[in-house]
Amino acid sequence: MTRRTARVLVVDDELPLASLLREFLRGSGHTPELASTGAAALELVSASAPDVVLLDLSLPDTSGEVVLAQLREIQPAVPVIVMTGYDAERAERLLAEGAFATLTKPFNLQHLTSVLDAALASRR
Question: For the chain, what is the domain count?
């Protein structure tokens, strides 16, 4: 199976995790972009829609829920994968609000690949 490459926006203020995800995504043939705040993420998405967004629920300037709602308004077709380190129940509620999937930190990179592939396949 040929894996589709994608522009992936990683929205997370934890620099070590964001850097790890950037390198992993690059190694998988994707083009990652990083944003450490909700405002930066929304600016990037408004300028040029990524193929998929990895969104942390805990951001320094706003909540992931607010960013998800705004992303759904700006680019409703872009799949958003919600990441959380502490509140899986909250993340699950976001599925009803338009998130494609949820990942609980720490997550396995192989599982991330599966979820990312499914998100990209949903865009076809």
Answer: 1
Inside any domain, residue 1:
no
In the numeric block, the tokens 């040929």 are attached to 2
In a domain, 87, yes or no: yes
pTM exceeds cut of 0.90: yes
Q: Is 2 domain-assigned?
A: no
Render each residue's pLDDT in the chain as its tens digit; 124 residues: 445 689 999 999 999 999 999 999 999 999 999 999 999 999 999 999 999 999 998 899 999 899 999 999 999 999 999 998 776 677 678 888 899 999 988 889 999 999 999 999 998 6
Give the structural domain span for 70.
7-122
